Amino acid sequence: MLLELHNIFKWVTQGGKRIFLLSDINLQVEEGEFISIMGPSGSGKSTLLNVIGMLDGFQEGEYNFLGESVHAMKEKNRSKLYKEYIGFVFQAYHLIDELTVYENIETPLLYKNIKSSERKALVADMLDRFNIVGKKDLFPSQLSGGQQQLVGVARALIAKPKLILADEPTGNLNSKQSEEIMQLFKELNQEGVTIIQATHSETNAAYGSRVLHLLDGRRDHK
Predict the structure, then answer these.
(1) Domain span at residue 73?
(2) Are 165 and 196 in contact (CB under 8 A)?
(3) In Å, what is the CA distance from 36 to each residue of 65, 137, 156, 211?
(4) pLDDT band with cut points at 50, 70 and 90 for residue 221
């Protein structure tokens, strides 16, 4: 079992009232799954991804990742865990504007005490795999949206995560670029990477091996 969420509740308090962002979420994910989370805007898709990715906490419930109790961990250990095992791909790419394509892809390795020669080899592999060798010295602003998202995926993958979390990964792309990114996820999944994506798109959701529906922060068992 890669991860388990038990009875997760997350809320914010406004005007003395609790507004639930996630309500009684239970989820088990096996290694190698490809899961799509669907639901309208505001249904809690991004919040759920951020909780799974350990970027967001929650008020009640239990979260186990590779047998470790995330909910009981110190912040420092949590952050170590997600840097080790989780890669993120965002709708807005989140590349660092001042860094070249090469440097953006290399960033996650800098947290990992990997020797410079090994970093070079890993980045070269990624540039090659994504056919962006010719773009390595360009800055994000010089790339198309599709190319920026390829760089985002390469960066998420370089540290060989067990889990990729993708939040509307094709939200800013045209249909041809979307298909390219989704095919790429499918390939990665076939190679054993677990993927959880939040998406509005039925087409993208269909790439997953199962679909989870959210409505108002709850699982909607259709």
Answers:
(1) 3-219
(2) yes
(3) 19, 34, 18, 5
(4) confident
